[in-house]
Write a structure and sequence with these properties.
alpha/beta; eight-stranded mixed beta sheet; 12 helices; about 30% helix; about 20% strand; disordered N terminus
Length: about 375
């Protein structure tokens, strides 16, 4: 077997991002953050000016729920999108998903809007949209213009009666019915705007009726009231079985105990995944990668016997790339409480077109909203509190 090339060192941009992140995620601004604060003031001024120049967004064919972060980096947005799509479907809705498709090939090399297909690649549509489609089987459209993506997806799938936007809080051109603000245990870090801190926009002074807050991990949410979430690791899938969707090949995480595993995570906050694996009793060697990393070759050292990785990384690991290494895929799951989800349905129903309300009503023999039964709670290893 030919020897695998050694993994490439992190790029200059990745090293710079890591340096800034060490200053962002502190409870108080560091000296370096204070030095960058004038740039943050400029950023905030330009953001407000640009937002003021935006025309009123055009209405979408169906109500839209935007799931996003006020901070840069991953706060668990994608698992929330997946859980929301599953919960809406269980409540009798027909959800679709729109996303920018961050990390996909430049738009000049492909269509500005692209529908995610079962055989799409992460290079074509982005890793998170591809993962969302694989986990939910919901129709997904990617494009920088989220409003155009919403209209085209509804044209192609006329039964869609609600859209979930994967990110897009700062996309003012997209009309929305509800916004879900997702935070994890890091909160808002030092509380400063980019580039001095992790905030994309200032914290809202009040939530208002169209915003909800979700918080996972230890500590208090930076905004209240907030719905607490618990993330759990799912079972371990052999990579080939994961690509086939063959659940019969899944193994409980405890089956991987006692093995020396390389843990691969191309996430904005990979340490959370690593801690959860260790809490499950796994022995791991950490291999963090930049968020949305692309893999032209196997990123682990040559001769690695076994790797455990995330689903977000798995969508970028075709079988020929991994060679003789055995790769295990572990998903991150959560369920939205049924009573909390039920609180979203009223505003969404009020914003629905008449045809959508009639269609949902026709599917309910009793005429009642099928939310009295709680959604399934994920099984697996819960997230440890640091």
């Amino acid at each position: 077997m030919p020897r695998q090339p050694l993994p490439q060192p992190p790029s200059l941009a990745a090293r710079l991002e890591a340096l800034l992140a060490r200053h962002w995620w502190q409870p108080r601004p560091t000296a370096m953050a204070r030095l960058l604060q004038p740039l943050a003031w400029v950023y905030g001024t330009l953001a407000r000016w640009q937002q003021a120049r935006q025309p009123a967004p055009l209405p979408t064919p169906v109500p839209v729920v935007v799931v996003g972060n006020l901070v840069v980096g991953g706060a668990g947005k994608t698992p929330v999108v997946i859980a929301l799509v599953q919960g809406l479907r269980a409540a009798g809705w027909q959800p679709g998903v729109i996303s920018r498709g961050y990390g996909r090939q430049p738009e000049g090399d492909g269509p500005a809007l692209r529908r995610v297909q079962p055989d799409s690649s992460a290079t074509e549509v982005g890793d998170e949209p591809l993962l969302i489609h694989r986990r939910t089987q919901a129709p997904v459209m990617v494009g920088r213009d989220r409003a155009a993506a919403a209209r085209l997806l509804c044209q192609l799938h006329p039964t869609i009666d609600v859209l979930v936007s994967d990110d897009g809080l700062q996309h003012a051109a997209l009309a929305r019915t509800l916004e879900l603000l997702v935070f994890d245990e890091r909160g808002i870090g030092n509380g400063l705007l980019l580039p001095a801190g992790p905030l994309r926009q200032p914290l809202p002074l009040q939530l208002g009726p169209h915003r909800r807050v979700l918080h996972s991990g230890a500590g208090a949410s930076p905004l209240a009231p907030a719905q607490a979430l618990q993330r759990r690791l799912g079972p371990a899938w052999p990579l080939d079985a994961w690509w086939r969707g063959d659940e019969t090949a899944c193994q409980p995480l405890v089956a991987l105990r006692g093995r020396r595993l390389v843990a691969l995570a191309g996430l904005a906050a990979p340490e959370k995944f690593f801690r959860m694996l260790e809490a499950a009793g796994l022995q791991i060697d950490r291999l963090p990668q930049p968020d949305h990393a692309r893999y032209a070759q196997a990123p682990w050292p040559a001769g690695t016997a076994e790797v455990v990785t995330t689903e977000k990384d798995a969508v970028k690991l075709p079988l020929p790339l991994v060679g003789g290494t055995r790769v295990w895929v572990v998903g991150l799951d959560l369920a939205l409480p049924a009573d909390w989800l039920a609180g979203l349905l009223g505003p969404l129903n009020d914003a629905s077109p008449d045809w959508a309300r009639r269609a949902r009503q026709a599917q309910r023999p009793s005429g009642r909203t099928p939310i009295s039964t709680p959604l399934p709670t994920p099984t697996g290893t819960p997230e440890p509190h640091p």
